Amino acid sequence: MAVDSSLASVLGVLLVFTLLHNPNTVVGQSIPKVALFTFGDSNFDAGNKQNLTTVNVAQGFWPYGKSRDNPNGKFSDGFIAPDFVAKFMEIPIPIPPVLRPDVNISRGASFAVADATLLGAPVESLTLNQQIRKFNQLKEANWNDDFIKGSVFMIYVGANDYLNFTKNNPDADASAQQAFVTSVTNKLRSDITLLYNSGATKFMIQTLAPLGCLPIVRQDYRTGEENCYEPLNNLAKLHNEKIGPMLNELAATASGFQFTVFDFYNVILRRIQSKTISLSYRFLKTNVSCCGVGTHDAYGCGLPNVHSKLCEYQRSYLFFDGRHNTEKAQEMFGHLLFGADPNVIQPMNVRELVMYPVGEPMREVWLPTTSSTFQAKHASSPFGRGFQYY
Ligand SMILES: *[C@@H]1O[C@H](CO)[C@@H](O)[C@H](O)[C@H]1NC(C)=O
Ligand SMILES: *[C@@H]1O[C@H](CO)[C@@H](O)[C@H](O)[C@H]1NC(C)=O
Ligand SMILES: *[C@@H]1O[C@H](CO)[C@@H](O)[C@H](O)[C@H]1NC(C)=O
Ligand SMILES: CC(=O)N[C@H]1CO[C@H](CO)[C@@H](O)[C@@H]1O
């Protein structure tokens, strides 16, 4: 009896020990009170562009924010993906645009600005590098080092570099494309390193969407009914291929560097391509915008001099305007970022990234996936249907 009970308590201690030391376990653990910082372009802009320009921006006007009765400078009919991630992180106040006066940035901020690029000098915007410098200016007065180390840094940038490149170099050959991708991704690498040297250790990097399938791109390049503009998809693919290996290398060399990669490219592409499955994603329209004018209703949403169309039911559209997603889609992205499996975000999801002990080396690396490995994995997936189609 005495032996039994001491054995039981030893097992109990072992169990507790195991739970505490498995960072992927949430049993009995609460989400640390940390911050969420976002960097990049319009997809993560919480209203900074509005503050950076003297002209009235479309996203400050109806029908932007329509589903929330509040056009607030976000490029959506309501919330954007980081808003949902912040909510899942139990952050009690909305993530504010850092450039707006008098905002409370104690639990994070959006440094992202529409039109942001990695290279060049974007007009009335900030490059990623300038956004990080802004973070550094504010750091000392607002957040201590441990708090920054535990916080999540989400980055989505590069689309504007490739859209600009393609516009200016419509006939670029493969080697010119590859050279440009190399300079863009090298800049991304040096900017991430700058952010790491500023104290950040937990990074979520989102791959670029299939840029050639954005409604505004299909419309501008007149791709016809079903097609995407492949040169831009190829640039996005070349860019995306470099992200994972680059971050693996940083994690192997920079102490305490932790990351994950959200496969946004395939998240969007699956919703666009799967004609029948698209019903299970609940989007009926994936090739045209909800708001705008033109062959794909993709131009001019919110502009005062444009009589743009507005769809009746935003939630059945993947895209709200020519290049930004509806709130319904953003909510899905938020769920995928926070809780999806490695087919969508790897080596871990944002919940696991938040819970992962600060300073500890990562146990898993990012692995290349192809559409064939994706399908093969799923053919033998032990999970139910809900897990099979992200
Ligand atoms: C900012 O928000 C935090 C978190 O909700 C709160 O504790 C703090 O009092 C706020 N600061 C100001 C100045 O309102
Ligand atoms: C766009 O491309 C042009 C021509 O290559 C370049 O001069 C300019 O800096 C680019 N703009 C941005 C914001 O990258
Ligand atoms: C969008 O896709 C649908 C269904 O495949 C097709 O019927 C329609 O013509 C497409 N619209 C445009 C503008 O490409
Ligand atoms: C147009 C606008 O709102 N500008 C503001 C942007 O933010 C700076 C600094 O926070 C303010 O000084 C501007 O008035």
From TrEMBL:
GO terms for molecular function: lipase activity. Keywords: Signal. It comes from the Eukaryota. The keyword RNA-binding does not apply. Residues 1-28 form the signal peptide. Pfam families: Lipase_GDSL. This is SGNH hydrolase-type esterase domain-containing protein. It comes from Microthlaspi erraticum.
